[in-house]
Amino acid sequence: MNWWHEWATRRGARRFAATATRWVVIDTETSGLDLQRDHLIAAAAVAVSLEGGRPCLRVADSFEVVLQCPPGVVLDAVARRNILLHGVGRGEQGGGQAPAAGLRQLRAFVDGAPCLAFHAAFDAHMLERACRQHLGQGWPWPWLDLAELARALLPDLPHRHLDAWLQHYGLQVGQRHRASSDAWVTAELLQHLWPAWRLVAGSSGPWLAAQALLHARRHLAQTT
């Protein structure tokens, strides 16, 4: 994919996001937190359907993939601790999908939908890098950070971490730090944020309203 075609694809995806009625919440698991050195281990996605003006979730419209560990990778102590945290060991990775095939399946599931994640910058960077490495093209779809949006919608609450938001709303997670469980519970968090989100959006679309709110919040932070 040449640069012009990729630019046009990203531009079209941003425009489509304004009126899309299917969003996708994504969570990734990696061998660590180093954006340049660590690799993608697993990814999960849950579709959010905006039916009747409210977000709906369906187990049938969800996806998870475990990727094979790159050959020759030697796990350091940090990577071993991280694998213990999310529970995707070398055995499961050995039976996982080849990275290129797994990423193609994830992209097919997203199918042009705008994407959301809690601390989205990390997931966006890891998927962008993995797609460029294994598919020769980046991740074309726009992102919205639910962590930043939650703080903007409910500024009086002190919560910063996902666990704090889950506790606040009484949300239960099947297996914390497993991509599929975290993606699902993050989508449930979106549902709980929806009333405040719609109030801010008013008559405008919720995706554009959220982007405008976050832009204003960042601008205010830079000028104060």
Automatic annotation (TrEMBL):
All copies of the Exonuclease domain together span 22-199
Please indicate which superkingdom the organism of origin belongs to.
Answer: Bacteria
Give GO terms for biological process.
DNA metabolic process
What's the name of the protein?
A: 3'-5' exonuclease
Which InterPro entries does this entry report, sorted A to Z? Ribonucl_H, RNaseH-like_sf, RNaseH_sf
Output the Gene Ontology terms for molecular function: 3'-5' exonuclease activity; nucleic acid binding
Q: Name one Pfam family in it.
A: RNase_T
Q: Which source organism does the UniProt entry give?
A: Inhella crocodyli
Entry keyword set:
Exonuclease, Hydrolase, Nuclease
